[in-house]
Amino acid sequence: MLERLRRWLLLLVFVPALAWTAEIEVANPQLTASDDGYVLAADFRFELNSRLEEAVNRGVVLYFVADFELGRERWYWFDEKLVTRSQTYRLSYHALTRQYRLSTGGLHQSFETLGEALGVLRRLRHWLVIDKDERGVVAGGSYLAALRLRLDVAQLPRPFQISALGNKEWTLAGDFKTWQATLPPLPAGEDK
After folding, report:
1. In whole angstroms, what is the distance from residue 187 CA to residue 108 CA?
2. Full-model pTM
3. 64-109: per-residue pLDDT in tens?
4. Tens digit of pLDDT for each residue in 102-133?
């Protein structure tokens, strides 16, 4: 009897942890030099579950946030964060035009299908994450870079925020993917 109770308690402890596992995977992150600094390219692997798909199709705007961090490891203290950037993507459906819209900042693209819009969202390209005159960042230096993509439920309409609390169907996030990045030299004439 006592052994059976222990098993149930272990299940109660570990099952919620399994339910919150990452659903967005970061693949092929790369930092390359450009005239303005360093740009990031990466691919995200994820699928919208039926609840999120239904929400978009009914006019609920989904906000996805890409978070980037660049830091330096220190043996004597916590790692030093040099750069932190975030970029928000808005995924929406317009019933009048019957098109999906993916927006970031003042730019937007329209798509015939949700699959096409998600295809673009899954491919992050040419995101300027490190300015050429960023303090503490030197070409040729070795740094610890991290990237993730997550659904930001805090930007959902209030009724959806309440139902999203603790509900796995409204959770779509990924852990930070970290990698060692050695920054290539900037183009000639732009080196710091």
Report:
1. 30
2. 0.81
3. 999 999 998 877 877 789 999 999 999 999 999 999 999 998 899 9
4. 999 889 999 999 999 999 999 999 999 999 98
Q: Helices H, strands E: what count in the chain?
A: 4, 9
DSSP string, 33-94: EETTEEEEEEEEE----HHHHHHHHTTPPEEEEEEEEEEE--SSSSPEEEEEEEEEEEEEEE
Residue 144, judged by CB atoms within 10 A of its CB (0-12, 13-18, 19+), counts as: middle
User: CA-to-CA distance for 20 and 176, rounded, in angstroms?
Assistant: 14
Whether residue 64 contacts residue 173, with contact meaning beta carbons closer than 8 Å, is answered with no
Residue 95: strand, helix, or coil: coil
**Virtual CA dihedral for 43, 45, 50, 54, nearest 10 degrees?**
0
Question: Whole-angstrom Cα distance, residue 122 to residue 120?
Answer: 5
